UniProtKB/TrEMBL annotation:
Origin species: Rotaria magnacalcarata
Name this protein carries in UniProt: Uncharacterized protein
Amino acid sequence: MFYSWNSLYLIPKPLLPTYCELVGANPSVRPNPKDIIEKLRKPGQFFNNDLIAALKFLDEIQIKDENEKHRFFSNLSTILDNIPDFISKNKILPALLTAHEFSNVGSVLLTPLFKVFTCLHYKLELPF
């Protein structure tokens, strides 16, 4: 939460008008947060990017058909380079493993799976 107008420089410039609407002095005039999210997901807006689209797909993966899953996992390896490692490790890797176990997507999972494994920084310790 920003307590001072001096902190506005911390907010990305494309979000400043939206932020000002959300913290308006009159609560009855403030926009509905759902409407704001929908507006920011439209083409050319702040939340319309590959990361948000991938996370949204993973949240809705249970209702997707096999063709949609196949298309998503085929394209996933191209966007993994732009996804932060902690999201790849904690969100995408579990989804890949679950998809491998419970769906018929097949070998299309291997490329993104190996790409996620390369971002893991586990130290191999030998027992001897």
